[in-house]
Amino acid sequence: MIVLRNRAYRSLVTATGLLGAAACLLVPGGASGATAHAARTISLSESGRLHITSHHTTHLNFQGTASGTIRGSIYIHLNVTSQNRVSAEVSIYPSNGSLTGVSTANYHANGGQATFSGTMSISRGTGSYAHAHASNLSFSGTIQRSNDATTVRVSGPLSY
């Protein structure tokens, strides 16, 4: 009987300890003083003006300034994957962190201008955007073939 009582006592102590630990995690400030991070969602409406910094056959690198919901430097690494498709990695650096996403888009050249339009996902961020994520953002832009001046637009909901 003593063995059962000791096992029951140990189970009760273990359960109480687990409940206490769980309560510390749920209470703002918890045992360690950490607070929970409430997710926020904003509607992105970004536009950027960029210039080409380097190119190697089907790889083009652009740099410029993003304005709109989030302002900062923007960098795009664009890869022409076929005659009518491109993929891109897009990084925006506002003053309080960074956002990085990937995109795939249709690509169409017509005379002196090329256009692209597709979707973008954001899966990485730092600073204020450390928990950033978004999918199915609208991603589009134009490239002036005479001077490689580029505009880009990104829009849709972003949670962070």
Task: Provide a quick synopsis of the model.
The chain is of the alpha+beta class and 160 residues long. It has one helix spanning 2-26, and strands at residues 41-56, 59-68, 72-82, 85-93, 97-110, 113-127, 134-144, 150-159.
Describe this structure in words.
The chain is 16% helix and 60% strand. It is of the alpha+beta class and 160 residues long. It has one helix spanning 2-26, and strands at 41-56, 59-68, 72-82, 85-93, 97-110, 113-127, 134-144, 150-159. An eight-stranded antiparallel β-barrel has the order 1-2-3-4-5-6-7-8. The longest helix has 25 residues, at 2-26. It contains one helix and eight strands. The chain is globular and about 50 Å long.
Question: How are the secondary structure elements laid out?
Answer:
Elements: H1 2-26, E1 41-56, E2 59-68, E3 72-82, E4 85-93, E5 97-110, E6 113-127, E7 134-144, E8 150-159
Any key phrases for this structure?
160 residues; 16% helix; disordered N terminus
Radius of gyration: 24 Å
Strand share of the residues?
Answer: over 45%
Note the gap between the termini.
55 Å
Specify the biggest β-sheet. Answer: 8 strands, antiparallel, barrel
How many strand units? 8
Structural shape: globular
Task: Tell me the series of helices and strands, N- to C-terminal.
Answer: HEEEEEEEE
Physical arrangement of strands within the biggest beta sheet: 1-2-3-4-5-6-7-8
